[in-house]
Structures are given as C-alpha cells and as structure tokens.
Recover the amino acids of this structure.
C-alpha cells in the first residue's frame, strides 16, 4: 500500500486545529513532495514556529525554507526532537528537546527486573525532557 504524501491528514482530536499542519513523508528518506513543500510554505505565512518530530525532518525543512528565502530564526523559529548529531549538521544549529537517554536506559533495565518479579503489576515512569536552545529559535523579526 502506497503512503500518501499529503498534507492535512485527519488529525487526532487533540490536534484538531487549523493551526496544526501534519505532514507525512513519502519514504524513509524524509523527502517531501512538491505539493507538501508548497503547503509548508503557504502554511508558514501564518506561523512563527515549526516543531518537528526529529532532527532529520528539521534539516529538510531548513532546506525548504532556504530555497524559499525564509530565514531561520529571523522569520521562523524551528524546534526539533532527539538532539542527534544532525542538530549540528547545518549552519543553523537546532534547538531541540532532549530526553535523559542514560537515565531512560537504567530505568528500563530496572523495570524489566521488576516485571520479572511481578508479572501482573503495571509500572509507570515519567521523566521530564529538557530543552537545548540553539540558534534555530529567537524573536521573529520578519
């Protein structure tokens, strides 16, 4: 089954808002169709910040914005997730949400041990993410 490369799929109820643009990528290389790129640019006219679900998508959007002469962060702020090495891969260093990976790993191991001792119990763990502010965000002047 071919995945659509369409913008504006039916969002979940929590995101049912005209100010939220959900995009599907065409494939695992995170390539956006021309239609998707045009929708991003048209949507941009009414927003000041883009939040991307990973650094790879963020870098692709930086390319799209540059191709359309939109300057980050002067005209648009960009925030990403995962703080991968890609966060430093372009001239625009990505502001990114970070997760305590080492702490997550330790907690996962501890939970596995607890689950082997008590197979019926449900365990929940909450961890606070952090934010690393870099030069992809700032006051929008354009």
């Amino acid at each position: 089954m071919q995945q659509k490369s369409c913008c504006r799929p039916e969002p979940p109820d929590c995101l049912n808002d005209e100010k939220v643009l959900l995009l599907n990528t065409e494939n695992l290389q995170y390539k956006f169709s021309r239609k998707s790129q045009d929708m991003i640019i048209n949507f941009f006219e009414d927003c000041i910040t883009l939040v991307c679900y990973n650094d790879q998508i963020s870098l692709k959007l930086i390319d799209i914005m540059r191709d359309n002469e939109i300057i980050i962060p002067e005209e648009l702020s960009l925030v990403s997730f995962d703080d991968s090495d890609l966060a430093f891969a372009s001239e625009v260093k990505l502001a990114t949400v970070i997760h305590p990976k080492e702490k997550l790993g330790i907690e996962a191991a501890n939970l596995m041990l607890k689950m082997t001792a008590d197979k019926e119990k449900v365990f929940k763990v909450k961890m606070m993410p952090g934010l690393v502010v870099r030069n992809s965000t700032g006051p929008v002047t354009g």
